[in-house]
Design brief:
4-stranded antiparallel β-sheet; 11 strands; 12 helices; alpha/beta
Length: 309
């Protein structure tokens, strides 16, 4: 937008300067009888038509930039390596909760291949609440992304219910994982699409119920189309609290066995923070919950505290 604004301002400035210059030069030539009034008017019209055409070209650049940006984004997606299905993959027992074990896990940076943390050995028992604490840069967020199978920048062993991750069907495993991460996007689509993400087995009634639980229903019903309202600019539509509400609804609606959550709650107003945190803990009372937080309030609610250094 800033580029378009600069270009539009430049063409307006150029148009003003050229028009003023032509008027001054034309007036001087007219006074000296070097040109006729007809020639003066004709030349002025031709120059202004050319400038108007240039202005129209600049105004159409927005659509061109949109197309180029879309192509670049599509290119990034198509250039990504496709995840290959695992042959003879195993599946977790659908009737069991999820426990996790890490053995000699080394975490590497996603942009630079530097080691963030190393030699991590821990056990997260099925059905427990665990709080990950530690200073910035200790690898808490990276570990959460690894546990969610979003990234694989690690060395070592990860086991879910004693089964190595490389032997599991990742697509099926992800159906049992709900994530609340700060970098998750609210995309162009309806409220229903943003909450359900098109996953199987989620009804419109499920969307309505979870929206009411997290307190998002008031915002949704403020739009004429309600749950079918298209979210075109999330930054304008959503406050920080509403954004966390939607991400929480998105994570919990599928009733996952494992919930991974960054601490997006402590930055909210106390009343909203307390409500959302209590909801998360209540809904995960029979699940495995891993929370990233340095908050004493969160630590008190968890069964175990793991400090990453």
């Amino acid at each position: 937008f800033k580029v378009l604004l600069g270009q539009y301002g430049s063409i307006i400035g150029l148009k003003t300067l050229v028009t003023a210059g032509l008027l001054i030069v034309g007036a001087l030539l007219l006074i000296e009888n070097s040109i006729t009034i007809g020639q003066f008017v004709a030349s002025e019209i031709v120059i202004i038509l050319i400038l108007n055409s240039s202005e129209k070209l600049i105004m159409s650049m927005e659509a061109i930039y949109d197309v180029l940006t879309s192509i670049e984004k599509m290119g990034k997606v198509t250039d990504m390596e496709i995840e290959q299905p695992i042959k003879n993959a195993l599946a977790l027992n659908p009737n069991e909760k999820i426990g996790i074990e890490l053995k000699n896990l080394d975490i590497f940076g996603t942009l630079q291949n530097n080691k963030i943390n190393e030699g991590i050995n821990l056990i997260i028992k099925a059905g427990t609440n665990v709080c990950l604490t530690g200073d910035a840069g200790s690898g808490k967020t990276s570990l959460m992304k690894i546990l969610s199978t979003s990234i694989d920048n690690y060395e070592g062993s990860i086991l879910y219910n004693d089964i190595p991750i490389q032997n599991l069907d990742l697509e099926e495993l992800r159906k049992d994982i709900g994530c609340i991460f700060d970098d998750q996007e609210i995309f162009y689509g309806t409220f229903i699409e943003n909450i359900s993400l098109g996953r199987d087995g989620i009804s419109d009634d499920d969307v309505v119920k979870i929206a009411q639980e997290v307190g998002l229903d008031k915002l949704i019903l403020s739009f004429p189309n309600g749950y079918n309202h298209f979210i075109m600019n999330a930054d304008r539509v959503f406050s920080g609290t509403d954004r966390v509400r939607l991400l929480t609804a998105r994570a919990l609606i599928s009733n996952p066995k494992l919930v991974l959550a960054e601490d997006l709650f402590t930055g909210l107003k106390e009343e909203y923070s307390e409500l959302l945190l209590s909801l998360l803990l209540r809904r995960c009372s029979d699940k495995t919950l891993v929370l990233v937080s340095n908050s004493e309030r969160v630590k008190k609610e968890c069964d175990h505290i793991i400090e990453m250094k």
